[in-house]
């Protein structure tokens, strides 16, 4: 548990990368909401790559921290929520997609809070797959907006539905774990 923040951990390279990602998320949401798809796509790719890099650097150079274990999945949730809200605003997705994904995260937050559990969860493979599928479906939906002459809508729609299913399967696992703790 992260009772007292170790501010030295903020200075680790992976955590600084995560914090940069956090700072850029509102700008990404803004770019999506004003339909600036070229810049939004470029920034989303950069943020997705930085998500990979911070984890790789932490593992490769033994720079894992408790703060990083909390920050990385939290920033992923903020990224996902911001992108979904902005895409809803731009009529790219429907409200059921937004509510089903954010609803799962909210449910887990409430259950963990009521049970007095730590907010940091042990990330499982299906959870990583759910997040990965969401990122892939975002990429397909972005491409549909970016390249209007080629339709990625069918692929993006199918990917987002699969993402919701996998995201909820992971949520079920996390919920079961939260109730056991």
From TrEMBL:
Transmembrane segments: 12-32, 78-98, 119-143, 149-175
GO cellular component, one term: membrane
Gene Ontology molecular functions: CDP-diacylglycerol-glycerol-3-phosphate 3-phosphatidyltransferase activity
Keyword Lipid biosynthesis annotated: yes
GO biological process: glycerophospholipid biosynthetic process
Keywords on record: Lipid biosynthesis, Lipid metabolism, Membrane, Phospholipid biosynthesis, Phospholipid metabolism, Transferase, Transmembrane, Transmembrane helix
Subcellular localization: Membrane
Keyword Ribosomal protein: no
InterPro entries: CDP-alcohol_PTase-I, CDP-OH_P_trans, CDP-OH_PTrfase_TM_dom, CDP_ALCOHOL_P_TRANSF_CS, Phosphatidylglycerol_P_synth
Membrane disposition: Multi-pass membrane protein
Family, per entry: Belongs to the CDP-alcohol phosphatidyltransferase class-I family.
Identification of the protein by name: Unannotated protein
Organism this protein belongs to: freshwater metagenome
Lineage: unclassified sequences, metagenomes, ecological metagenomes
